[in-house]
Amino acid sequence: MTFRKTLKHWYSNNKRELPWRQTKDPYFIWLSEIILQQTQVKQGLPYYGKFVDEFPSVFHLAKAEESDVLKLWQGLGYYSRARNLHATAKYVVDELNGEFPNNYKGLLKLKGVGDYTASAIASICFNQASAVVDGNVYRVLSRYFGIDTPINSSKGAKEFKQLAQELIDTQDPATFNQAIMEFGATQCKPQNPDCAICPFNISCIAFNNNKVNELPVKLKALKVKKKYFNFLVLISSNQKTILEKREGQGIWQNLYQFPLIETDKNMSFETFKQFAETHDLIKNKTFDLSLYNQEVIVHKLSHQHLYTKFWIVTIDSPLKVGVPLSEIREFAVPVLIGNFIESFNFSSF
């Protein structure tokens, strides 16, 4: 098929040299694929290096504490990926004797592994002809074939998977899958692709009908919620602060944060001070309150925007429990908290 040959030829001349392309070991391929979910290569590459250095095998990762895995993951976001990564490593070691399943169906049973990741590992490591379909592949196929079925609909998912499966090179599925993902990432980019040098520009339906910017089609997402987060950064007379571990199934599960007061709107200094005085950690204590960031920090997540303020609470009395200020960087925290910790001068207390 012309499409397949053209794609593979382009890939042989344009592929990036990436460390996980130098191996077929399922551990390293799985690790790279989990890191690159929701993450661009340039951001994920240093994390991949850190994980390989720290956990050179699935056995090393399985033995690690979850808190250590989360700490190493810090800054990548979507922390459920890290928790699933650790849980899967333990499962592979404890239940599968350290051997990853060698086929698509078996891989699909692993926690945190969906259709795309299972297909990638199965094709690259075990030469199984299972087509990958991710954002890059959706974009390439929708533009080249002129498909306007929404990619985030059940119909779209089925249609594009079937098409990709028909196109895959059954003799060399690993190269085909990596080629189409690479093409979408570096050539058929979301914004301003250089169609003039594209090897498919003669036969691409989107290009020839001026629809490159219209494809792929995506159904409108749900309205993003606004939340108002107020973090209490306690500084005691014995140079301790309070970090709390987030429980439950919400965002940042098992990560640490400063005590949080969530309000239904942005509050003035005086209003918030009266509100904070009733908090159990401050009640009946002598304290000074100051606002660290005069402008609200807006932290954008996929489904909600967090309008954030950091309130510095200096207490005249010591804290019996808490974290020494000198150890605050040792905890796994969300990037929002991590950025504050890096910018705030704790050593001045």
From TrEMBL:
Transferase recorded as keyword: no
Domain of life the protein comes from: Bacteria
Recorded catalytic activity of this chain's protein: Hydrolyzes free adenine bases from 7,8-dihydro-8-oxoguanine:adenine mismatched double-stranded DNA, leaving an apurinic site
Signal peptide: none
Cofactor requirements of the protein: [4Fe-4S] cluster
Keywords: 4Fe-4S, DNA damage, DNA repair, Glycosidase, Hydrolase, Iron, Iron-sulfur, Metal-binding
Domain HhH-GPD per the UniProt entry, residue ranges: 35-186
Gene Ontology MF term list: purine-specific mismatch base pair DNA N-glycosylase activity
Gene3D superfamilies on file: Helix-hairpin-Helix base-excision DNA repair enzymes (C-terminal) (1.10.1670.10), Hypothetical protein, domain 2 (1.10.340.30), Nucleoside Triphosphate Pyrophosphohydrolase (3.90.79.10)
Enzyme class (EC, first level): hydrolase
Keyword Translocase: no
EC numbers on record: 3.2.2.31
Note on how the cofactor is bound: Binds 1 [4Fe-4S] cluster.
Coiled coil: none
Pfam families listed in its UniProt record: HHH (PF00633), HhH-GPD (PF00730), NUDIX_4 (PF14815)
Database matches in NCBIfam families: mutY (TIGR01084)
Family the UniProt entry places it in: Belongs to the Nth/MutY family.
Function summary: Adenine glycosylase active on G-A mispairs. MutY also corrects error-prone DNA synthesis past GO lesions which are due to the oxidatively damaged form of guanine: 7,8-dihydro-8-oxoguanine (8-oxo-dGTP).
Protein name as catalogued: Adenine DNA glycosylase
Originating species: Mariniflexile aquimaris
